[in-house]
Amino acid sequence: MPEPFDRHQLQPLLDRIAAAAPRHFGEGEVADYIPALAEVAPDQFGIAVCDINGKVWRAGAADTAFSIQSISKVLNLVIAMQRLDEPDIWTRVGREPSGHAFNSMAQLEEEKGVPRNPFINAGAVLVCELLVSRIMSIHWMMREQARRLAGNPAINFDDRVARSEMDHKARNAALAYLMKAYGNLHSEVNDVLDVYFHGCALAMSCSDVARAFAFLANGGVNPQDGQAVVTPQQTRQLNALLLTCGLYDAAGDFAWRVGLPGKSGVGGGIVAIVPGQMSICVWSPRLDSYGNSVAGLRALESLVEGLGVAPLG
Ligand code: DON
Questions:
Q1: Which residues are listed for substrate binding in this entry (predicted)?
Q2: Is the CB of 205 within 6 Å of ligand 1?
């Protein structure tokens, strides 16, 4: 078992991190390729930690809802892993880091329509096709899962964001059609994208996201209600995927600087897992060139250093 972190140290540390965050305001840009995201006030910061007993610590704008964007790709994969047989998933999408931007077309063409992993856009769209082709009420299920995991029945889709993404769908549609051309995607592209964009448009706060991901720190069991979300083996597999693929072509740098399984979204959120101890969510909308939150990354570095949590040794 990893050394437990010092609970008394945590709140003052989070307060210090939130107080230091404005130093990075002004660095990076908000995502503007989705117009509804470009309207978010850029200089905001929140952080929340949830331990394996479900206790939450927070600082800054930890209860402000933001668009979780690619963080939803993990929640969608969880539904697929709960409901589908392993070969149904892993013959259609790989488990290797891509080393390419999250929305790159080049590798998908080279590799004949089989996405490298479920966290790049092509892979996440493919997972949504697995879900939409098998589950009638998938939108409802995605929202219910987020509500149940976070223990917050008020969580909802931001329909403006979902519509804005559909209005500017060209690149994701191109990825989907390429997979269709290679025979790896069969459903109507717009039906698949509608599911994918709704997942991305879930509006959750740092406190919600930290709570919703605590099962990945807790052997697959949601500390909110004691329910098993995935098996211990699936938990290890998901954390392995997050460590190697969660931050796209910056996954290596994230492992170097933070050393935790993590997943970012272009809404400015990043979730990270300290296995056996806690889940963490940071949020700040300005992004670096890889699509990862600038102030969020800095905050995670400071938190890991301040707490001395180091699952990689
Ligand atoms: O499809 C897109 O491009 C966005 N809805 C999600 C991309 C994303 O969040 C990448 N993460 N950093």
A1: 70, 121, 165, 172, 196, 248, 266
A2: no
The SS3 of residue 57 is strand
Please give the pLDDT value at position 313. Answer: 87
> Are 83 and 167 members of one domain?
yes
| Co-location of 220 and 252 in the same domain | yes
For 210-237, write each residue's pLDDT tens digit: 999 999 999 999 999 999 999 999 999 9
H or E segment and range at residue 144: helix 138-150
Distance of CA 141 to the CA centre of its chain: 17
DSSP state of 69: G
What pLDDT is recorded for position 203?
A: 98
- Kindly provide the b/e burial profile for residues 5-25, where b requires at least 16 CB atoms within 10 angstroms of the residue's own CB: beeeebeebbeebbeebeebb
290 and 144 belong to one structural domain: no
Q: Is 248 known to be catalytic?
A: yes
Single residue among 150, 169, 200 that ends a domain in this structure = 200
pLDDT, position 70:
98
The question of whether 266 is a catalytic residue gets the answer yes
262 lines ligand 1 (CB under 6 A): no
- Measured between alpha carbons, how far is residue 6 from residues 10, 66, 133, 182, 306 in Å? 7, 29, 46, 52, 10
| Residues of the binding site | 70, 121, 165, 172, 196, 248, 266
Angle at 222 between CA 14 and CA 58, to 5 degrees: 15
> Which domain range does residue 242 map to?
7-68+204-307
| CA gap 81, 119 in Å, rounded | 14
CB 249 within 8 A of CB 100: yes
Determine phi and psi for 311, rounding to 5 degrees: -60, -20
Query: In terms of pTM, does the model score above 0.85?
Result: yes
